[in-house]
Structure formats: C-alpha cells, structure tokens
Specification:
By secondary structure, the chain is of the alpha+beta class. The protein folds into 2 domains: about 25-200, Reverse transcriptase/Diguanylate cyclase domain (Alpha-Beta Plaits, 2-Layer Sandwich); about 200-244, no CATH class. It contains 8 helices and 8 strands; from the N terminus they run ααβααββαβββαβααβ. Helix 3 (about 80-85) packs across helix 4 (about 90-105) and helix 4 (about 90-105) runs antiparallel to helix 5 (about 130-145). It catalyses: 2 GTP = 3',3'-c-di-GMP + 2 diphosphate.
Length: about 240
Amino acid sequence: MNQHTTIRTPITASRPQCPVGETQCPIVEEVVQLRQQVITDPLTGLFNVRYFRTALAQELERTERTLLPTALIMLDLDHFKQVNDTWGHEVGNLVLQQTARLIRDSTRKLDIHCRYGGEEFAIILPSTERPLAIQVARRLCENIANTPLQCDGHTLNITASLGLALCDASHPWPADRLLNEADKLLYQAKHSGRNQVCYPPLAENLSAVTSAEKDLLHDLFGGADHADDDSEDFAGEEFFSEEE
C-alpha cells in the first residue's frame, strides 16, 4: 500500500500585483480575500461545490496522464433533518462545523475537502490506491460516530454514511460518472443501515486482469479442479458495505 505524500498547491490564480509596486497593497489583499471567498463555504471553511468541480476535473486529468488513481468519498450525515427539527438550525450548523473539522483532522493534507451542499460533503483523495482510500474513509466514519456534540447539557450522537468510488486505469471515468458511482454507493450505505462505508467489491476490478494474468493465477491456485472454489473464497473476502 503506497501513500503518495506530495502536497498539491490549491487551484488558484496567480497573486495579483500592486499597480504601483507597493509591497503591502490593500487592493491586492482585498482581491486575494475575494478570490478565497468565491471558492470557500462560509459556514464550514471547506471548499465549496464550485471549487470541487474544478479540483475533481484536474485530478482526473492527472489520473489520465499518470495512471495514479483518484478516489472520491461522498459523505452524508445521518438523520440530519431530525437534528434541525428537534434542536434548531443553529445546532444543525454546529454539527456541520464539527463535521468539517473532523473531515480535516481525519484526512491528509493533500486531500481536498468540500461541502457539496446541505449536510453532504465530498473529499477528493489524489494519487490514492484503493486500500488506503478505504482506510481513510473508515477512519473518518469512525471518528464522526465517536465524537458526539455537546449542546446545552445534552449529547447529540452524530453518524454519517459514506460512498467511496475510484478512478484508475481500469475505470477511467469522467467526473460525472465518478460522482454518480460515489453517490450510488452512498445511498447503498444509507439503505444498509447507515453509519458505514460502501465501496465496490474487489472482484469488480478483476475484469481488467489479462488472460496471461488469469493463466498465472490458475497455475498458482492449483488447476481447474479447484478454480471455482478459489473464486468463491476470494470473492467472499470483500464486502460491498463495511459496518463501522
């Protein structure tokens, strides 16, 4: 499991120059702040959906060029409407802010954290192989569940459902397709009981195995008499959803 730790520079335009050449220029600082506001969600401090779309397109282009995978996590808070209805929108906002903090604390510096809308968040994991992406998603799901919100002497237990999709050499998907796959897995997590991560089974990637690789696997596992048994055992090691 290889972890690429190259930290990427956020997608921003070059810093504007002061028209009169001053080192400290109020106009330049104001322009920089306005640019940051355009790509930032004001409540959580995460990137907004506008930035998300730009960043995802950039990372998928990088995947196409380098063949290094890009993973996408879609996260939705469980029963968030009930929180708003019971405790009010101010408490709901506190839940969103705490979730944003946990997303930042549970992921890596190179990951791109976005508020997608409402109680839904998106995390782009650049140059990330499947095992590491699953590890990050599981850790995030667990940290949210293990960090209740304390409010006016009451404890609010918060959980989230996560869908994880991967764009790699065997699945060179465009942004819309990758987002759709992650969304489908998110709803699978919801329908499977919430508070869990769903991701494609490893068997889905076997379609990319060449015939020569299949022959080698056949030889390693002892021939045709046991091929079906080995396939069943191997497929049983991966689950479509992972309880947290």
